[in-house]
Amino acid sequence: MLNTLRDTYSVLWVDLRVLRRHWLRTLATSLVNPLLYLVAFGYGLGSGISFEGYSYLEFVIPGIIALTAMTISFSGAGQKLNVDRLFFRSFDECLMSPISLYSLIIGKALIGVVRGLISSTAFLLVGFAISPSLKINILFITVLVLSCFVFSFFGVLVAFLAKSHRDMSTVSSLVLLPMTFLSGTFFSLSQIPEALRIVLYLLPLTHSSQCLRAATLGQPFPWLSLLALLGFGVFFFLASMKVLKKASV
Amino acid sequence: MLNDIIVTENLTKNYGKIGAVQDLNLNVHSGETFGFLGPNGAGKTTTIRVLTTLTKPTSGRAWVNGFDVVKEPDNVKKEFGIAQQHMSLDRDLNVKENLQLHARLHHLESSERKRRIVELLDYVELTEQADRMVMALSGGMQKRVMIVRALIHRPNILFLDEPTVGLDAQTRRRLWELIRRLNRDGTTIFLTTHYIEEAEALCQRVGIIHQGRLIALGKPLELRQKLGLFTVETLANNTDTQYHYFSDRAAAKSYVQNLPPELKTIIIRESNLEDVFVELTGQKVSED
User: Fold this and answer.
1) Is B226 part of the contact surface with chain A (CB cutoff 8 Å)?
2) Interatomic CA distance for residues A120 and A108, integer angstroms
3) Radius of gyration of chain A (CA)
């Protein structure tokens, strides 16, 4: 057990060194999108709109935190792994070390979690300054951390499956981008016709944003969504393990 | 055999319909420099990938220092270090960090890590480069870093996959010196190459591989003796070079004296492993 923890840290250590070298640039670029959404939708379009009894700003900030956690965790975990695997081919070094697949996958996912948490927290501080009614409680933190794990494992899975860099950006365009806009992030899902709403509940970000919003605005908490989110996390983790095991054949 | 540190038994690896390695039976003695010689695509890298647990055999077995590569991969991983053919250092890290990563992954304690890295960088005269990003180094330096990285955990075996490809002649000589030194200091070396001179310069025993099959195994001198230690090359105007082999220089000379005078070029020289390969396969090792 201790070995697994130590090995997981060794895998994470690489990405932490890289992050340390470029942390300011990484942080700054990761904040551009959420701040733009905040200004364009939160202030620009949203003033005067209210959803579910809350001002648009109160409504949209948790949504933006959720999508930020998603995009940063996904690319944080997936990007270097994909490049190392396909292009630099330096991933073999990890595969030839006496460490378990668990350590490898969790270690690679953790950098996504670290980056996701740094960026969402940075944006959260901005959000807090704008809308002090936001509640930061254990539930909120739990959901945020869990969301980062879910999308980090998704990033690891796609990095293993992708046969080219184009595959990674295809997933970004076809999966992440629609989730960014449709998963209850910018508008309430009560506005959506039932049929489409059901489809949207199949997306992990929907559950993530609903849970975050409920936790921070003190709404009744959608425990089923939390369970669904956990389910997605477990699924992506197990799928990553399976793909990696098959790769050494 | 008791002191065989690498053994394969009918090792076969197929990728779909492609038979990359077929029924390979080889053994490497502990402490020797063993060369796996063959043209590109012959199956050398595939064999190494099986021995280093990156890929599983389709059939057959292999043992590294007694550990089965399929059943005990973690034990196998402690027995070897490898410098792969491609530049496999992490480009986002500097030299020292690349070595630290390997040391961590192989469970060296913090103080031992530091000590070992200083020691190894000194061994290959790269102490000045410790803090430089790996992409700032020359190809030869990168190779040296990859080789010492492989040695951090003091493995018994060092795999070198095409160690001098892409390097100039001078750098190649320096690397050969390093490899000889490593072998003298006790490491068994398994190298693959398609350079005849490299196999002849470094290896006590060679295995010649062609289209996935081992076609010769033994000491270079023995393989050449089987063929004939001396070669006579003859070139006429419109035909390909002809090769004839003789067991000693006297026999070669007497053959030459009886040759027709219209032959444009006649060369008497010692046979080499390329001749062995050509005779066995009808092809040259270095097609390029």
Assistant:
1) no
2) 19
3) 18
Distance set, CA A55 to CA A37, A64, A65, A108, A191 (Å): 16, 15, 16, 38, 16
Q: Is the pLDDT of residue A249 over 60?
A: no
Per-residue confidence (pLDDT) for residue B20, from 0 to 100? 93
Quick check: A130 and A53 in contact, CB under 8 A?
Answer: no
B52 interaction partners in chain A (CB closer than 8 Å):
96
- Among the partner-chain residues A17, A80, A84, the one whose CB lies closest to the CB of B97 is A17
* Strands annotated E in chain B: 4-15, 18-24, 27-29, 33-37, 59-64, 67-68, 80-83, 157-161, 188-193, 205-210, 213-218, 230-235, 242-246, 265-270
Q: What is the pLDDT of residue B288?
A: 46
The shortest C-alpha distance from A91 to chain B (Å) reads: 8
How far, in whole angstroms, is CA A153 from its chain's centroid?
9
Enter the pTM of the model: 0.90
How distant is the Cα of B74 from the closest Cα of chain A, in angstroms?
A: 5
Ramachandran sector of residue A193 (left: φ over 0; alpha: ψ -120 to 50; beta: rest): beta
- Give the whole-angstrom CA distance, residue A63 versus residue A34: 10
State which residues of chain B have pLDDT below 70: 1-2, 286-288
Residue of A111, A128, A108 lying closest to A64 (CA atoms):
A128
